[in-house]
Amino acid sequence: MKKSIKQDILDILKETRGIPEEKKMELVNSIIAVFGQYKEPVSQVLWVPINTLLPNSYNPNKMAAPEKRLLLRSLIDHGITMPLLVCAEKEQHYTLIDGYHRWRLIKKNKELLKRLGRKVPVVVLDLPNNDRIVATIRHNRARGRHQIGEISEVVKILSTNGWSPSKIMDALGMDADEVLRLKQFKGLGEMFKDGDYSSSWN
């Protein structure tokens, strides 16, 4: 390590004594600047108290008991391999975008709570509500299956908030037939009657 970089890091560390929780992001940004890291969200992981995280109200992803046991075993044996994805709320609380099952398992497991000092790693994204929902769906669709009733509720929310069918298809990685099935499941015909459909709908 070059002497100048080493000294920069030492100078930063000297400034951390008694640093308040809310100032830690400034420290992280200082370290990122020293190493010239890419400013991707994953470069800015924070450890926050687990009780400051709250579940969202729209996550349609379910996990069966065998998969939960497997995930818990992985958390215990391999450790935390990826941060939870959250949005900041008021009074230093966070709403989960991705990582609900990991959060719940850690919160209920005494061994993990003790080992982690009752904290979990998070990446904070600043997103409006619709984009939070989309981020949750995109992360979940890469890993598991959604319950049809609940994913159709997500389609309903986005449509009610003014999103067109084509925008929903593009944002959630769905094709026209999938959106149509979800529309029919929740009785969204009236909501979509003036939508812009492709020729595949005919």
Model description:
The chain is α/β, with parallel strands linked by helices and 202 residues long. It has 2 domains: 41-146, Conserved hypothetical protein from pyrococcus furiosus pfu- 392566-001, ParB domain (Alpha-Beta Complex), CATH 3.90.1530; 147-202, no CATH class. It is built from 10 helices and 5 strands. It has helices at 3-14, 24-35, 65-78, 100-108, 110-116, 129-141, 148-160, 165-172, 176-186, 189-192, and strands at residues 45-49, 53-54, 84-88, 94-98, 119-124. A 5-stranded mixed beta sheet has the order 1-5-3-4-2. The termini are far apart. The model is unreliable at 197-202 (pLDDT under 50).
Number of strands: 5
Which sheet architecture does the biggest sheet show? Answer: 5 strands, mixed
CATH level-1 class of the largest domain: Alpha Beta
Shape: globular
Instruction: Report the span from N to C terminus.
Output: 64 Å
List segments where confidence is low: pLDDT < 50 over at least 5 consecutive residues: 197-202
Helix/strand order, N-terminal first: HHEEHEEHHEHHHHH
CATH superfamily membership of the largest domain? Conserved hypothetical protein from pyrococcus furiosus pfu- 392566-001, ParB domain
Strand order of the largest sheet: 1-5-3-4-2
Please state the CA-atom Rg, rounded to the nearest Å: 21 Å
Number of domains: 2
Beta-strand percentage?
5-15%
- Overall mean pLDDT stands at 79
Summing up helix and strand content along with how strands pair, one would put the structural category as alpha/beta
Kindly identify the CATH topology of the largest domain.
Conserved hypothetical protein from pyrococcus furiosus pfu- 392566-001, ParB domain
CATH-scheme architecture of the largest domain = Alpha-Beta Complex
Q: Summarize the amount of helix as a percent range.
A: 40-55%
Instruction: Please count the helical segments.
Output: 10
